[in-house]
Specification:
mainly alpha, 3-stranded mixed sheet
């Protein structure tokens, strides 16, 4: 059941990234003529506070992530890639985690996201 398992910080981070990837795919399918939505891994172990505190390493140049996000927002290669996953570690579009490709899992995640957003709307 969603929200019932206690996750460590990195487990929660990984689950949030997976949910964003699933949501991106769903958005692209729901709005095929809408804005482009692409899930992006800007790069592993970039020099962020999370990497420094979580792994105890300085990390790679954070500009790596900034550059790919700029390219994703402005580059022609991304203009028709809605719903895809870009892995900057491999330098191109790639398959996301297997769980994001599992239609039943994706449907479960989207239901949880819908439940959360409906609850938030009721409380505002």
């Amino acid at each position: 059941m969603a929200g019932q398992a206690k996750l460590d910080d990195f487990g929660a981070y990984a689950q949030s990234k997976l949910a964003l990837t699933i949501w991106t795919q769903h958005f692209a399918q729901t709005y095929p003529n809408g804005p482009v939505a692409i899930a992006v891994n800007p790069g592993s172990l970039l020099a962020s506070k999370m990497v420094k505190e979580g792994f105890g390493v300085a990390g790679n140049d954070i500009q790596i992530g900034a550059d790919i996000l700029t390219a994703a927002a402005t580059g022609a290669d991304f203009a028709t890639a809605s719903g895809k996953y870009f892995d900057n570690d491999s330098g191109g579009f790639a398959q996301p985690h297997q769980a994001a490709l599992d239609k039943n899992h994706a449907a479960d995640v989207m239901q949880v996201l819908q439940d959360i957003t409906e609850g938030l709307r009721r409380n505002t």
